[in-house]
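Why should sequence recovery work at all? Because a backbone constrains its sequence more than one might expect. Tight turns favour small or flexible residues, buried strands favour hydrophobic ones, and helices have their own preferences. The token representation captures these environments compactly. In the example below, the structure is given first.
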């Protein structure tokens, strides 16, 4: 098997892993686990696992990579605030809307990132990006069934899931510019550490201590598929493929999340919703390919 094919398989598995946690969260709620317990123990185990991996590889990082200085560590920890808010909004929204709708609203980060780039960096979107934004919005209308007046969708759930997309866009913008030369494990550990601190402050007071055993089980499982496994697969697979292919494969997170919701939760997916997912996938892929070409130029 070629290195490129190995990279594609690893990144694909990492993307599929990212699509599973939303369904697991729904299942954990059915098992009586609260948002506070899910969030706290997910980031606790995620931070613990990444911390162990980071400190084990510290010697290798110092030899082959650029170590993180104190300033970079503080910035990465602070950037964890956006990640904590992303998960807080996203997890809470699942109480009011389906996984399909929550996942689609999270993917609004594609065009929100372009808007933030324009506001803060004065970067004007190119024609392809503008068309992609329009396609994402059209796909959102289809996937969320907003044109079907017989279906009642929680406005509050839409707001929460949209805010998760806003915070995710901020997370992408901030983390992509912080210590890019450092190891992925080190950067991820300090970001997750910051997120865990914020989660503890926001949700620690409402943890239900009577369901700790169940919380440990679900927290460890969700942390594995939402934090640890994707990081390891991406860190191993991304260097073997081009950024353009990686971006396209990463866009498969949305259909993966909806597929898991269909098979695990038995959520009904209409043909119109399926078309909406395809449109959003095409739009996200186009944006990533355009970014790749701009980097090469």
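From this structural description, the recovered sequence reads:
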């Amino acid at each position: 098997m070629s290195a490129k094919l190995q990279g594609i398989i690893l990144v694909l598995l990492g993307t599929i892993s990212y699509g599973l946690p939303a369904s697991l969260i729904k299942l954990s709620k059915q098992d009586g686990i609260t948002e506070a317990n899910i969030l706290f123990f997910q980031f606790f185990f995620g931070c613990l696992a990444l911390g162990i991996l980071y400190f084990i590889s510290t010697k290798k990082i110092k030899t082959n990579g650029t170590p993180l200085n104190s300033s970079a560590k503080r910035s990465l920890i602070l950037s964890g605030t956006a990640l904590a808010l992303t998960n807080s909004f996203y997890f809470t929204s699942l109480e009011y809307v389906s996984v399909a709708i929550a996942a689609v609203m999270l993917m609004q980060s594609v065009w929100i990132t372009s808007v933030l780039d324009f506001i803060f960096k004065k970067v004007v979107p190119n024609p392809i990006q503008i068309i992609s934004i329009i396609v994402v919005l059209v796909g959102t209308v289809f996937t969320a069934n907003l044109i079907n007046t017989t279906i009642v969708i929680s406005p509050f759930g839409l707001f929460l899931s949209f805010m998760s997309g806003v915070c995710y866009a901020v997370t992408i913008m901030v983390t992509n510019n912080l210590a890019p030369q450092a190891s992925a494990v080190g950067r991820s550990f300090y970001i997750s550490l910051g997120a865990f601190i914020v989660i503890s402050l926001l949700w620690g007071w409402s943890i239900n201590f009577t369901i700790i055993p169940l919380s440990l089980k679900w927290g460890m499982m969700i942390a594995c598929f939402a934090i640890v496994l994707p990081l390891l697969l991406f860190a191993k697979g991304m260097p073997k493929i081009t950024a353009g292919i990686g971006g396209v494969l990463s866009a498969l997170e949305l259909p993966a999340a909806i597929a898991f919701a269909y098979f695990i939760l038995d959520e009904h997916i209409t043909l119109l919703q399926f078309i909406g997912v395809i449109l959003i996938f095409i739009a996200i892929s186009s944006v990533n390919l355009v970014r790749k070409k701009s980097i090469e130029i």
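A few observations help interpret the result. The chain has 14 helices and no strands.
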